[in-house]
Amino acid sequence: MISCKEASYLSSKKLDAKLSVNEHLQLFIHICICSLCRRYAHEIKLLHQLLQKAGKTSLSMLPESTRLSIQSQQRIKLALEKAMHETGDGE
Ligand SMILES: [Zn+2]
After folding, report:
1. What is this structure's pTM?
2. pLDDT tens track for 64-76
3. Which residues keep their CB under 5 angstroms from ion ligand 1?
C-alpha cells in the first residue's frame, strides 16, 4: 500500500503523464480507501483543467489580474499539498 505522499504524487503525475499499470492500480486502491487523497485528486484535477483553459487563452493576452489568479491557483495547489502532508496518515 502506497503512502498518502506517494498517492498525491501519482495524482499530480497522472495529469501530466501516463501512469504505468502498476502506478495506476496503486493509486486507485489508495483512493478507494483514503478519502483525503480522493478529495485531493479531485481538487487538483479541477485546478489542472482551469490552468489548461487559461493556457489555451494565451497568457500574454490576459490582463494582469487573470495572471495573478493563475498564480493563486498554484498557491492553492501548494497549500493543498502541504495540508495533505500535515493531516497525512489516513482517516
Ligand atoms: Zn491518502
Report:
1. 0.58
2. 555 557 677 788 7
3. 4, 7, 34, 37
